[in-house]
Amino acid sequence: MPDNKLTFLIKVFLYLLVFSLAGCVSTKDTAFVESGFPVKSPNDQRTYQHFSLPNRLRALVISDPDADKAAASLDIKVGSGSDPDHRYGMAHFLEHMLFLGTEKYNEPGEFRRFISSHGGSNNAYTALEHTNYFFDVHHQYLAPSLDRFAQFFISPLFNEEFVDREKHAVHAEYQSGLKSDYRRQQDILKTLANPAHPFSKFNVGNLETLAGNNPASIHQDLIDFYQQYYSADAMTLVVVGKEPVSQLRKLVEEKFSAIPDRGSPKKNNKSQGPAQSESQPLYPDELLPVRLNMIPINERRSLRMQFPVTNPKSFYRQKPVQYIANLIGHEGPGSLLSYLKTQGWAEGLSASQGLSGDGFATFEINIGLTRSGLDHIDQITRAVFEEIDLIRQQGIEEWRYQEQSRLHHIAFVYEENRANIDLASSLSRRMHDYPIKDILLAPYVMSHFDPQLIRTYLNKLTPDNLLMMVVAKELKTDKKTRWYETPYAVLDINSADQQGWLNPVSNGMLRLPPANPFIPDDLALLPPPEQDHKIPVQILNQTGLSLWYKFDNSFGTPRANFYFSIRSPEANRTPRQAVLTKLYVSMVNEELNEFAYPAYLANLNYQLYKHMRGISIRVSGYQQKQSVLLSQILRTIKNPQLNAARFEQVKQRLQRQLANTRKSPPSRQASSKISELLMTPSWSVPEMETALSDLTRDHLVAFVPELFADVEIVSLANGNISQQSARSMADLINQTFKDAFLAESVPRSKVAKVTLPMQCFSFDVPHPDSAVAVYFQGADKSTTSRATFALLSEIVSVPFFHELRTEKQLGYIVYASQLNFLDVPGLVFIVQSPSHSSGNLVEYTGQFINRFKTKLDAMDETGFEQHKQALITHLLAKDTRLVKTT
Predict the structure, then answer these.
(1) Looking at residue 262, what is its pLDDT?
(2) How many C-beta atoms lie closer than 10 Å to residue 814's C-beta?
(3) Which of 352, 417, 760, 827 has the fewest Cβ atoms nearer than 10 Å?
(4) Is 576 helix (H, G, I), strand (E, B) or coil?
């Protein structure tokens, strides 16, 4: 047995020992916590150390010797829930202001420029009870980056000259979300929430709320808020770097010890501290049960069922809410979703914890409705409560809990790394919630089956504790919210309705899922082949079918990917064919869903999607049972049932999707328009809507044989998979399509050449903002051109953002980035503004570009090399997992 495999097995054994004792709290456990070393996956090669500074800031340093990029995140246990009542948006406004200079680094935006010029990125967000700041950077520049970052929390300038400018930036962010149905839903919930509860506060802020009762005092209010809440004892810090933990700890001690310990409001028992929610109910007692009607911006229909519950955070080892959600949200045969789809009432369903904060949470069930479903809300609600009662009566079983526990356990043991910036941001927030020993384990551990605790949460899922929100264009409303002007209505739910919902409706069609057949029992890492190539090699090349192969278990997990692309000349030749291919893909996904859902729970996933030359399928996850899933996928692809009722639902959904593209943010529409103009063949939304309007199931039935009459298939296997297994999977494809293979390749899509002079295209969108997208195309497809455009994007992105957003305050959405089509390089400048016309935005962008040319000519060699190295850092960054998630 190779040494590395033996070492891994020893680590797995030690982890099993820890996992099996995870619920036992003892004196030894306490000592383990205090030593500052969290329980980690045996697949995690990083080193961790936790400690506290004299100012009571808690820090976690992580040594990752393989890191290309270092990262850091600081989380403050304060957010919009602590905004003063006369100044909603203050926490969010403060987050913006911290980026505008410190005493040591007084140039506005200097931190962002430094990070970007050294291959990094940065951001921040404000939530109800947290504000989180994070960045990554080339590992060599961690120390100077931390020095700049720490000054945010030591000596920010809060220059009064920038206050008005940044208020407008917050206002632009608010306006950019006015057409967001998610924000509009939240606005209704906040409107009806208990006014004494922090959740009720308008969290984004705008010019009106930031002006408050006394606009002149906002600068002092900002400083007061910062000094009240930005205290070291309310902060948690995570730093990830290449250096040993001892050096990282020294860096943290050196850079962050000067942050003042002012004593957090919670410890000082101040009236408006972050813990205010602990003593207040989320909604007024008299509100529930209630039905809310909402009219959305987009074409959509949904039912949201929300039940206030106690925050289950302290039960993270038992996970009662997750246990219940997994059963309600199951999508296999006999599931609630399966029943609702059979009735023609629903398109999708999810169940999970919703809102959460200190002392409160909600359990939520969200159902995507069909047109018929909107007329059957009462029956759908009865089915939901029937499912809940079924779980209460039959579902609280230890074997089910142990099955979920095993899946969590496998996921933790074979956990893949995340990007260090994501790791730092998530852990800095998580440090407020869990003991450091469990900081990595907490999302995975399920070590205590507690039937009574599960029953306690089930007993909160009752008609008298329900907030129901129905969303559809057809509904009647009589009210509007203040901040997003969302039309809504509040309807009483009487006792007769509540009692009626407890009567069964499914005629016994609902049943709980059986044991999951896709849970793997062979998780061995395969030995590398004798010839282990660095890039994929072609191991099968026959007429119409090729297979490429690359062994890779460098991530230490038994995962593999099997991709195959079915290219057909009939997939996208006309708008009608493009729409039929979309309908076909949706229908196949619908037919596969019940079979594939248990595989998804066992971390064996598939994706089936359309592209410009046909369709692609990716099977990914634990390799052992991939062929079982692939066999079913191929059977369904070649011989779909194409249920007539389901076809009508899928067609309606596509009609909504096409209609909703016109309501997406203007900046997104402008960018999409460039793609539509340049790519061939490419079809506009009106063209596809016209093609879709008269299509029937019969048209789709006739189209499928045409789609697969002549095909070319290219496949790739990579990961922890042998050549033999890869060939076996390719053979399944060969058996399915052996009579349809083309002798010639299906032609690639083409990219139109942009010609001078500059061409302008304009179109109207139903949104208060204006937007422009200014695109420049490379002269050719050479490696030199692609590298040049990548470097140009690296150089131009920060100054463009700084000038047009930070200085000129044109809008919240401002960026410059690469926009490549196939192998043709390009660069795009995007601006979305609530206050300027599209003509003005084109003018400002053009002025910037002209000035930038001069600055580029004047750039010295040192600055140029710095940008080159930043780009090289991006290009050479190692993958952290087998499948990229973004």
Answers:
(1) 93
(2) 25
(3) 760
(4) helix
Other C-beta atoms closer than 10 Å to the C-beta of 530 total 5
Give the mean model confidence (pLDDT) for residues 186-210: 96
Q: How many CB atoms lie within 10 A of CB 88?
A: 22
- The one catalytic residue in 95, 386, 403, 794 is 95
Given a cut of 60, is residue 14 above it in pLDDT? Answer: no
User: Exposed, middle or buried: residue 85 (CB in 10 Å: 0-12, 13-18, 19+)?
Assistant: exposed
User: DSSP for 53-96?
Assistant: -TT--EEEEEE-TT-SEEEEEEEES--GGG--TTSTTHHHHHHH
φ, ψ at 822 (rounded to 5°): 55, -120
State the residue for tokens 């809990």.
401
Cα separation, 805 vs 121, in Å, equals 17
CA pair distance 59, 70, nearest whole angstrom:
16
Nearest-10 Cα torsion for 44, 49, 50, 55: -140
| pLDDT range class, residue 757, cuts 50, 70, 90 | low
Question: Tokens for 810?
Answer: 């044109």
Asked if the bond preceding 686 is cis, omega within 30° of 0, the reply is: no
Taking the CA atoms of 450, 452, 454 and 457 in sequence, report the sign of the dihedral they define: negative
Q: Is the dihedral of CA 408, 412, 413, 417 positive or negative?
A: positive
H/E element, 609 = strand 604-611
Q: Is 95 annotated in the active site?
A: yes
- Amino acid identity, residue 242? K
Cβ neighbours for 263, distance < 8 A, ≥ 6 positions apart:
231, 233
Sequence-distant contacts of 8-17: CB under 8 A, at least 24 apart: 8/42, 8/43, 8/525, 8/556, 11/42, 12/42, 12/413, 14/42, 15/39, 15/41, 15/42, 15/412, 15/413
| Torsion, Cα of 686, 687, 691, 693 (10° steps) | 10
Token pair recorded at residue 596: 């594939």
* pLDDT tens, residue by residue, 87-145: 999 999 999 999 999 999 999 989 999 999 999 999 999 999 999 999 999 999 999 99
**CB-CB contact of 146 with 255 (8 Å):** yes
In this structure, what token pair is assigned to residue 723?
A: 């050549």
Identify the top-confidence range among 438-442, 526-530, 833-837: 438-442
Percent of the chain at pLDDT > 70 equals 93
* pTM of the full structure: 0.90
Task: Report residue 156 CA to chain centroid gap.
Answer: 31
What is the torsion angle, in degrees rounded to the nearest 10, for the CA atoms of residue 335, residue 339, residue 341 and residue 342?
Answer: 130
Asked if 67 contacts 46 with a C-beta cutoff of 8 angstroms, the reply is no
